Amino acid sequence: MTNDPEVLDLPEGLGAPRQISQSIYALLRRHIEKRTFPDGLVLGEAAIAKALDIGRGPARTALEQLAADWLVLRFGGRGLIVSYTGRPVAPVRKDLYEAGLELSQSDRDAFGLSGASDRIYPQVEATISSCVAFGRFAIDRLAMAEHHHISPTLAHVILTRLETVGLVRQDKLRWYADKLTPDQISEYYEIRQLMEPEALKRAYPLLDRNRVIAARDRLKAVMARGDVSPAELNQVERDIHIDIVHACPNVQMVRIIKDSQRSLITTMHTFERYGSTPKMVLAFEEHLAVLEAIVAGDPDGAADALRQHLIRAQASTVPRMIDLPPLDKDRYPPYLLPVESA
């Protein structure tokens, strides 16, 4: 009787070991046939298991199949070696992601990584977004994994998703979050001024009037009290810019709006860090005008009020993003490493 705990130790949501080994085989074969991996790359079951968060058993089976198909060669060391000439070549030992491994959405689904990344992604996105107004940062993938108590593979999946939305980028196998400049914030606001009012009008027939009334009453209570917590400020922003605007049935319009609202995430977190919320409170009357118009059945008036609010927000926010004070080291996570401007 054999004891193979690696085969049983599969992430939740994965299929049978045979299915997993076939997915590994297809993934590696694709990279080899496209010559993505460097010539001489050593493929070992431990490295594959670590890269994909799976047990060694399926990795071992996939490697045996690659060898049987003459896609890799056996050599004196541990593992198998990629050789595009079919002849012996000097071994290259690298992290598979550093060697060019990329996971498609179907790959992430096959290895059970999509659901886990969905749980962690919002926190990482908010963390990085809250720092980029202060400068450019390198991102240490392994430190990020340790900080969030996730695997390096899952950290890579999350960074890839962030790259898709433009928050981070990969350069020479390193990850970076570039500084969000005042000019970029202005451009995002211009997009929002054009699209959010139109999205509001399209969302109007779908809105729950009682929820809009609740948002209005919540805002009135905050205004009457005269002070606001960061959590309340965040909710005030969500009530209109997320809950109402994102209810627009045009999926592509909402996608563009979400991308342009990244500046909102950044500036909100930035101002929270320095307790600089009083000027934000001045926008409450403008928010109230939008909500009152919706409650009154005037979507055109609500759209006009929203447009004027965004114009004023651009005029007041952009100057505040210029020459921000340095971000104290204890205010950003250890996996973000400040990079001096060239």
Structure, briefly:
Residues 18-85 form the HTH gntR-type domain. The chain has three domains: 5-101, Arc Repressor Mutant, subunit A; 113-179, Arc Repressor Mutant, subunit A; 182-320, Four Helix Bundle (Hemerythrin (Met), subunit A) (Up-down Bundle), CATH 1.20.120.530.
Task: Chart the SSEs and their pairings.
Elements (H helix, E strand, L loop, with lengths): L4 H4 L8 H17 L8 E2 L1 H8 L3 H13 L4 E2 L5 E2 L23 H6 L3 H16 L6 E4 L1 H7 L4 H13 L4 E3 L2 E4 L4 H22 L5 H17 L4 H12 L9 H10 L1 H12 L4 H4 L2 H12 L3 H22 L15 E4 L3
Antiparallel strand pairs: 1-3, 2-3, 4-6, 4-7, 5-6
InterPro entries: GntR_C (IPR011711), TF_FadR/GntR_C (IPR008920), Tscrpt_reg_HTH_GntR (IPR000524), WH-like_DNA-bd_sf (IPR036388), WH_DNA-bd_sf (IPR036390)
GO molecular function: DNA binding; DNA-binding transcription factor activity
Organism: Paradevosia shaoguanensis
The level of helicity is 55-70%
CATH class of the largest domain: Mainly Alpha
Low-confidence stretches: 1-15
Biggest beta sheet summary: 4 strands, antiparallel
**CA-atom Rg in angstroms:** 25 Å
Please state roughly what percent of the residues sit in beta strands, choosing from under 5%, 5-15%, 15-25%, 25-35%, 35-45% or over 45%: 5-15%
CATH topology name of the largest domain, in short, is Four Helix Bundle (Hemerythrin (Met), subunit A)
**Mean pLDDT, rounded to whole units?**
85
Structural classification: alpha+beta
**Overall shape:** elongated
Q: Count of helical segments?
A: 16
Supply the CATH superfamily name of the largest domain: GntR ligand-binding domain-like
> Secondary-structure element sequence?
HHEHHEEHHEHHEEHHHHHHHHE
**N-to-C span:** 62 Å
How many individual β-strands?
7
As for the number of domains, it is 3
Strand order of the largest sheet: 5-6-4-7
CATH architecture of the largest domain: Up-down Bundle
